[in-house]
């Protein structure tokens, strides 16, 4: 029973670590070639994408070559006197453990100046998510204190033209104008009738 539990734990551990192991890549420096003069290794490295956890393998004849890991400044000046690491077995595995560029060259005299050097650039993938785009709400309309907007005027009543009627008359005033003139003429005639009678009677 105990052995079954141990086997189950080991299996779960292997399954959990398998994505980490499978995600790393193994690169043979120069692909099928060895570490030697006559090959532009920086051109080879430009076609690769190195990440933290990847492994590069140097294969060479240890009698006439070696691999020296140096700083960027020593790499540019081909100075192997202050090495970070030295690899001399001829079949060396180097795991890229940090997101920092690594620099390698041959420590044998004249070989670095002859082009036997390599810069390994580590690709760093950004894990920070892109912030979402926020929309700015529109500004509220400007209002003046003490004033309120007037509501629109709506007329619900039908239009009726104004009329003015004479007292005791159902017809509009403008229709009774001739009748008024006739009444005035009759009144004047009645006023002058006694005067006419006296004049004709004296004759």
From TrEMBL:
Record's keyword terms, sorted:
Copper, Electron transport, Glycoprotein, Membrane, Metal-binding, Signal, Transmembrane, Transmembrane helix, Transport
Parts forming coiled coils: none
- Annotated TM spans: 181-200
Q: What would you give as a GO molecular function for this chain, any one?
A: electron transfer activity
Q: Which Pfam families match?
A: Cu_bind_like
**Sorted alphabetically, which SUPFAM superfamilies does this protein's record hold?**
Cupredoxins (SSF49503)
- Superkingdom, natural source: Eukaryota
Give start and end of each Phytocyanin domain. 25-124
Any Gene Ontology CC annotation: plasma membrane
Record-linked InterPro entries: Cupredoxin, Phytocyanin-like, Phytocyanin_dom
Signal peptide boundaries:
1-23
- Please name the PANTHER family in this protein's record: BLUE COPPER PROTEIN, MAVICYANIN
Q: What is this protein called?
A: Phytocyanin domain-containing protein
